Automatic annotation (TrEMBL):
Pfam families according to UniProt: GAF_2, HATPase_c, HisKA, PAS, PAS_3, Response_reg
Residue span(s) of domain Response regulatory: 711-828
Catalysed conversion reaction: ATP + protein L-histidine = ADP + protein N-phospho-L-histidine
Record Gene3D superfamilies: 1.10.287.130, 2.10.70.100, 3.30.450.40, 3.40.50.2300, Histidine kinase-like ATPase, C-terminal domain, PAS domain
4-aspartylphosphate modified-residue sites: D762
Keyword Phosphoprotein included in the entry's annotation: yes
Swiss-Prot/TrEMBL GO biological process terms: regulation of DNA-templated transcription
All residue ranges annotated as the PAS domain in the record: 320-361
UniProt keyword terms in alphabetical order: ATP-binding, Coiled coil, Kinase, Nucleotide-binding, Phosphoprotein, Transferase, Two-component regulatory system
Stretches assigned to coiled coil: 487-514
UniProt keyword Mitochondrion present: no
Protein name per UniProt: histidine kinase
Amino acid sequence: MVDNITESGNRALQTLSACNEAVIRSKTEAELFSNICEVITHSGGYRMAWVGTVQHDINKSILPVAKSGFEDGYLESANLTWAEYARGQGPGGLAIRNLQPAIIRDVQTDERFAPWREQATSRGYASVIGLPLIEEGVAFGVLLIYASENDAFDSDEVSLLVRLSDNLAFGVTAIRNRLERRTTEQALKASEESLRETQHITHLGSWVWSKQTSEMRWSDEIFLIFGFLPVSIKPSFETLLAIVQPRDRQVVMKAIENTRKHYLPLDIEFRVERRDVGERTVIMRGHVHFDDNGRLSHIMGTIQDISEQTSNERQLLLQRAVLESTDDAVLITDGEGVIEWANSATERVTGYALDEMVGQTPRLLKSGSQSEAFYNQLWGVITTGESWQGEMINRRKDGALYHEEQTITPVINKRGEITHFVAIKRDVSKRKAMEREQREVEKQLKQAQKMEAIGQLTGGIAHDFNNILASIMGYTSLALARFTKSQDESSNKLAEYLNRIDQASRRARDLIAQMLAFSRAGTSEPRSLPAAPLVKEAISLLRSTIPSNITIALSLDEDLPPINFDPIQFHQVIMNLCINARDAIAESGCIDVKLNLTTIVNDSCASCQSGVSGDYVELSVSDSGSGIDPENLMRVFDPFFTTKEVGKGSGMGLSMVHGIVHEYGGHILVNTKPEGGTDFRVLVPASAVNDSEELSVPTQSIVDGVVTPARILLVNDDHSVAGFIAELLESIGYQVVVTTEEKQIVDSAREQLKHIDLLIADYAIPGMTGVELAKDLRQQREDLPVLILCSGNSEQPQSPEWLENPLNGFVRKPIDNQLLLSTIRKLLDGDD
């Protein structure tokens, strides 16, 4: 027994001694734990040893951190805990909870070890001791030692092992303290380095002034701010004041004195003069500290170089002044499109104050004029880092719409991230209005050019038709004049047919006169006429252009005083008003045309806005259409204004009505309401004289009396017209020489000049005009009478010299035979 005690005691002593050496030798916790376990198993001869640390998790587990000896996976399945339940009743859990050694003297019989018995027995563990590792009264770990014999731990051995565990715990604490101290020192060093780096980055240095010694300490950064080496000068307020610019020095001195004597906080910005870089701007701050007796101890503060900041602020102020002075609106948003700033031009254009816009998005100005696809495309461009340029219509605060051009540019930082968007906008509403007006003028010009071209084409066609009609009407009149009326029924029928041809030709003549009036190739010929027949004739011509679903109702007072009007232009007024009424009716409806005498009292003309009073012949054209909007009513008489679709109207109809009606002293009244139809009332002054003539069948005798014998030169390149005129003139006794060949006209005329009494020339002859031919011939014979045949006003000689010469005359085509013969007689006889 004594030998056994001595043996176990020696084993414990050897283990304790080796463990103490391990504590001294080990540098880290892990190394110490590992060394201790190896000493226990190798020097102490124990079967196995391990160290576990206390875990404060939900299971209160024990985490193995080091082991030695025959372990063979035992710890992997041990599932140790220091909780109160069964697996916490082993030596490890008991030692941790009780802060005392816990011994299992016989693994086979001790029920507390039941959870691990089988695994322990298979590995040759017979007894176990658990030793708590304690720091400041709390177990942070446990040392477990396994012996291969029962009851291996007597009191002496336990005492030695307790000392071993205490030394282990002490060693762990010492290592932790060393590590903590080293960490603290490193942190302090890093903090000081970080402070120096921070001061350098921010150009901020620290200083301390002691009241007791009157000495001042500067950090390295202050020396750098002032351009000194740290060992080159002695820090002091006097040193500082020496480099302050003279114009700031008194202010700085006073601020320092107020802090030292009156304990006021120091906060002042001033300029210093450096020898290497010139002027710098700094800001100096300081705070007074007192000792335990309430007396001034020291002043601690900072000095910061704010030269770049000041320069940047000046630059920002300049940029802001520029942005505020520009007429363009400038809007800045963050990367999400939230407004952060806008200049005064933006406030002026939008009507929103800056504080109303900040925090909103530009959707505040959305008008609905652009589609969502438009905004999606815009956002897709600028979020990729590209600029967007374009136009849009936005809405002001008061609801008014305005056009703006804008450029939106993303602001990208050094990391390539979009931080802001800058929109530069310009209100182009006035320019857009001018562009619209210009387009309207261009459209009107094109329309005018088109109308002019159509007019020229119409005039040319009318001229050709006049030549054709001249032949038809001339030969018809000749046939009627030479026709000897007989009792034969077939002959009577022939006369009737000729009369119908003549009447149809006259209607064709009137139609051509309208075409010439449209082309401005005709002249107005006002006559005093009854209005009702003119209305009937115009409506009869119009019926073919009115759809079958629109009816025309006539209500005409036949017993009216005449009107002084050109019949062709009166036709134009009626036709334009009826066509306008037709176009106002969407589907089926009615056009009412009325003619009556009316008295107007204190009304106003819809087109010229003049006052209207008096008795008038009234032509009323009303429709059952959609009516005229009030905003359009003032413009319906403007040239080229139309509410119809493109290609559906020239916009000239009502303006022509206005011009024609007012030319004859008339006025226009308009009654309309939306969806209630429109009534145009044309008021024309009545005439006292009636110049109308009924159409009559041409008489057989064209000219009464005997003609004076004369030789007439007829120049006309149209064979049919020339033939008809020649036959007409020869039929009553004139001699006629006809020249129709283009190449012979001038030469033939010159050859015949001495032998002729009258020149009849078409206005349009090859190579010249009839007037030019007359002037050429009159160079040789000044007294030559000349008769010009013309189509409309464009061919009619206009010069006063021509018109005042009694040797000159003209007749329009289609030719009226009576007028032609009477004009010839007048020229030959020399009648005024």
